[in-house]
Design brief:
Layout (H helix, E strand, L loop, with lengths): L12 H14 L8 H9 L3 H7 L21 H6 L2 H8 L12 H9 L5 H9 L4 H8 L13
Length: 150
């Protein structure tokens, strides 16, 4: 759970909308139909098609969203109070725990940013809300070189 823990308040539905729109566009779903119709069409996509789409998307990482149903505002307090665990249990949910050797190497090879701020911002934004992404990146200096490895 450490790797996929929720270290900051997840995005709001509004902040996650660009990802949803990109996924709909990838599957040629019209932007003019309702959200419910879009979801219905996405649910018809095969598992294979959904999985193969992931690395073709700019917004490729699907994380929790603060929906105020399961993920509440004030996530730190919600998690610390035991309410999150109770909601998890009440929903009959289970954890799938796995291990990935050299996770940081895999992320760097698959989702590593190009050697510029916009690319780094987008990659971090895949995991965190815009306000968190901006706040975190203020603490890191970009390399002075255009070398992606740096």
């Amino acid at each position: 759970m450490i790797s996929n823990a929720i270290p900051a308040q997840p995005k709001t539905p509004e902040e996650a909308q660009p990802q949803f729109d990109e996924l709909c566009q990838f599957f040629s779903i019209s932007p003019s139909i309702s959200g419910a119709e879009k979801l219905s069409l996405l649910r018809k996509a095969s598992t294979e098609d959904l999985v193969s789409s992931i690395m073709k998307l700019k917004h490729h990482t699907f994380r929790p969203v603060t929906d105020e149903l399961f993920i509440q505002p004030g996530m730190v307090e919600y998690r610390s109070s035991g309410s999150f665990a109770n909601a998890f249990k009440d929903g009959g949910l289970k954890l799938f725990i796995g291990e990935m050797l050299n996770e940081e190497t895999l992320y760097a090879a698959t989702n590593g940013p190009e050697a510029n701020y916009d690319s780094l911002y987008l990659q971090v934004l895949n995991y965190y809300a815009p306000s968190v992404t901006t706040r975190v990146l203020k603490h890191y200096e970009l390399p002075k070189t255009e070398e992606r490895k740096e």
